[in-house]
Design goal:
Helix content is about 45%, strand content about 15%. It is an alpha/beta fold. It has one domain: 2-enoyl-CoA Hydratase, Chain A, domain 1. Helix 3 runs parallel beside helix 7 and helix 5 runs antiparallel to helix 14. The protein is globular and about 60 Å long.
């Protein structure tokens, strides 16, 4: 999309003398390579004015999640966590330069956006085909391509969900599968009115395994039953009604919505905000008691099982060739009342 977010301190401060306004201003446009730390070939990452901003940057591939994208997201989340305390934020910026004068405060907000028409189309179909043909599991694929300190996809979702600062996702376009997972892990989701969302894994022979805990937490079990099992798309308004999306706005007004939330967060004491986030996460974890680790293992095991199914290869090939899947060729399911 022509609209995503920049965090240039010089632009912010020259546009206004109102400190609250300057602190809450992100300009809607694509991040440029000369103003950001390049988290990877598939993402751009920048930090300024207390805001860490990660932008998915594979628009030609509909911002699909491949191994490089996962690694870039992991790096950005690590950096955001490190810079969420004033002690670290005053030493260096993400380029390793002394940034004490220009960035005296810690990161207070994390913003996730995307370039192009789609927010995120989910798992990369080409990598799905490769994993299905090799019989590899999600865990072995991750370990083959990512550093030892990077965990499984289940751990990535947990890392985003438990980020110590408030998280805002801007869905300028549609999101499917893992893209919905990213949104489910964020505290606030602002969606374009024209965007649609789907847990479409079942339509390509997969299952929304590792994202399940976060999606169910957002939309509830009853809604998850519908969308997990049918894979049908929902509109942005539908997504708002069931809790997946916080606010819906025309694409031209996404900036205004973002400004609103940043301004409101500027009014909140940083330590109290982080304490409130810990409170939310802690209560949720205690309610699950020791179940969280078991849930993570269960969903990971289910994903590894389904990856070995021939339906994954068939679904990925059909998606790439834009043809019908084998199970669609069997005819429409019918029933009489």
């Amino acid at each position: 999309m022509p609209s995503s977010f920049s965090t240039s301190c010089r632009e912010n401060m020259s546009d206004t003398t109102d400190r609250d306004s300057a602190s809450s201003r992100l300009l809607l446009r694509d991040l440029s390579h000369d103003e950001v730390f390049k988290a990877g070939e598939s993402c751009l990452f920048t930090v300024a004015d207390g805001v860490a901003h990660l932008q998915l940057a594979r628009p030609k591939r509909l911002n699909a999640l491949n191994q490089k994208t996962v690694l870039a997201i992991w790096k950005a989340l690590d950096e955001t966590t490190r810079l969420s305390s004033p002690e670290d934020a005053t030493r260096t910026n993400v380029l390793g330069q002394d940034d004490t004068q220009s960035s005296p405060s810690a990161v207070r907000v994390f913003v996730l956006s995307a370039q192009g028409k789609y927010f995120c189309s989910g798992a990369d179909a080409q990598e799905l085909m490769a994993s299905a043909s090799s019989g590899s599991t999600d865990e072995t694929i991750a370990k083959a391509a990512l550093p030892e300190d990077v965990g499984s996809m289940a751990q990535l979702w947990e890392k985003l969900s438990s980020l110590p600062v408030p998280t805002i996702a801007i869905a300028q376009g549609s999101a499917f599968g893992g893209g919905v997972g990213l949104l489910s892990c964020c505290d606030i989701v602002i969606a374009s009115a024209g965007a649609s969302f789907a847990l479409s894994e079942v339509r390509i022979g997969m299952t929304p395994a590792t994202i399940a805990p976060h999606v169910i937490s957002k939309m509830g079990n009853a809604n998850a039953r519908r969308y997990f099992l049918t894979g049908e798309p929902m509109t942005a308004e539908n997504a708002k009604q069931i809790g997946l999306v916080t606010e819906v706005a025309p694409k031209a007004e996404l900036q205004q919505k973002l400004d609103h939330f940043l301004k409101e967060l500027t009014k909140c004491a940083p330590k109290a905000t982080q304490a409130s986030k810990r409170l939310l996460l802690g209560v949720q974890a205690l309610q699950g008691n020791d179940a969280n680790q078991l849930v993570r293992k269960f969903t990971q095991d289910e994903l590894d099982k389904i990856r070995k199914s021939p339906e994954v290869m068939q679904g990925a090939m059909a998606m790439l060739s834009k043809s019908k899947k084998p199970w669609e060729e069997q005819g429409l399911l019918k029933a009489k009342l």
